[in-house]
Amino acid sequence: MRDGDHNQLPSDEIRSAADGIRYLRSQDLSEGEITAKDAIHISKGYYAKIPRSHIKPGYLLFSIMASIGNSAVVPDDFPPATANRAVGILVPKTENKFLTWYLFYLLSTNLGTELYTRIKKGGLQQRTNLADVDALEFPLPKESTQQKLVAAMNAAHSEWRAKLTEADALLSGLDDFLIASLGLAKLPKDDRKVFAVPRVSATSRFDPHFHLPALEQNLKMLAAHGSVPLGSLTDFSDETWNPEKHEAPTFRYIEISSVNTDTGEASAVETPLAEAPSRARMMVREGDIIVSLTRPHHGAIAQITAELDDCIASTGFSVLRGLSGVTRDYLWSILRSKFCLLQMLQRASGGNYPAITEPELRKVLVPKPKPAMQEKIAAEVHRRRNKARQLRAEAEAGWQKAKLWFEAQLLGGAK
User: Fold this and answer.
1) pLDDT tens across 243-297, in order?
2) Other residues' Cβ atoms within 10 Å of the Cβ of residue 341
């Protein structure tokens, strides 16, 4: 039983994916897998200094801080890696290759969650001590039964993943549909990092990132198409919320992490008024569109539905309200497109957490087709979105059924 690196990671030890070693964090463990989104890599020299935290295929990783409970088994083809102290590392002491997967699936069930919940500590900032994990008792059937359970759960997990992949493909293919519908040209790939800038005026951006050829081509393509600045299509709401005037003991809060970047759907968390974050200040109304200013290119852009009316959003969002010349569904769809997200990245500044200012967001160019085309695009986006939602619901229902079966095999009729 181990955890990851306890040192503060030096910024000068961070490397690119091409010449670095993967450095895992708790947020890199999601839905039973190690995600590649926003991956951090470190130098080989720093990696060599922390052998205790080295990670190999077959290890079981689980978050012991922040997103408590997320876990993943390191795949057979996973390259050398390490982790920070928020990740627990379970190293098998047996040649039984089914044991790690058995534990992973057990922790995914309600039974496993209840067992693990008993050893959590803390309030809002929960954590788990390794000594408590080490002492945790769990049901362990004989190896042949483990093999049977793992085989059945592998099949169910694969079916779950297949449906989610199909749902993701529906949404990821939207860019091609938008390009074809709007008559835009596909941009050639241009990864140049060394390039000439013909002219920089006193009022333009001087940072090299802004002038990257790939981003400049995207900007020129949209400008040639007659696109208009976002600021000409919508107002930016400055309506704020004062917690001192809030009468109820709780309020509904939308943080940037509350927006699903795959679907563009937001959710609100019921939050005690006494624990209101200082960033909980933006009042949102039904019909608004919220756009994340932090890492805006990730697509945390959502419509405020009737269910979210009168919620409070983080100051990390811009709130778009009062549209002119475009429908809400169309604007939401087009802002989540690759050619708009690339502009947001281009106009952002910062290192690992680039952010865009509201004045820069207003300058993002948006294609403005005729109303009939806007309706066509919005209808297709909704069709794909609804189908993707259906697939995800089917995937979740099937996976929940498999987990209940797993529990029944261990406990029989007992609850």
Assistant:
1) 999 999 999 999 999 998 878 889 999 999 999 999 999 999 999 999 999 999 9
2) 19
User: How many angstroms separate the CA atoms of 384 and 400, rounded?
Assistant: 24
What is the C-alpha separation between 327 and 329, in angstroms, rounded? 6
DSSP structure class, residue 314: E
Can you say how many angstroms the Cα of residue 386 is from the centroid of all Cα atoms in its chain? 20
Which range scores top for mean pLDDT: 29-38, 82-91, 283-292? 283-292
- How far is it, in rounded angstroms, from Cα 277 to Cα 207? 33
Q: What global pTM score does this model have? A: 0.71
Find tokens 């690759």 and name the residue.
338
Task: Report the alpha-carbon distance of residue 175 to residue 309 in Å, rounded.
Answer: 29
In this structure, what token pair is assigned to residue 1? 């039983």
Q: Which residues 6+ apart lie within 8 Å of 333 measured at CB? A: 174, 178, 377, 378, 381
The whole-number pLDDT of residue 111 equals 86
Total length of the chain: 415
State the sign of the Cα–Cα–Cα–Cα dihedral 68, 72, 74, 77: negative
For residue 357, how many other CB atoms are within 10 A of its CB?
Answer: 13
CA distance 256 to 266: 9
Angstrom CA distances, 403 to 59, 128, 297, 399, 409, stand at 22, 24, 35, 6, 10
Instruction: Catalogue the long-range contacts made by 73-78 (C-beta closer than 8 Å, 24 or more residues apart).
Output: 73/32, 73/100, 73/101, 73/104, 74/34, 75/34, 78/34
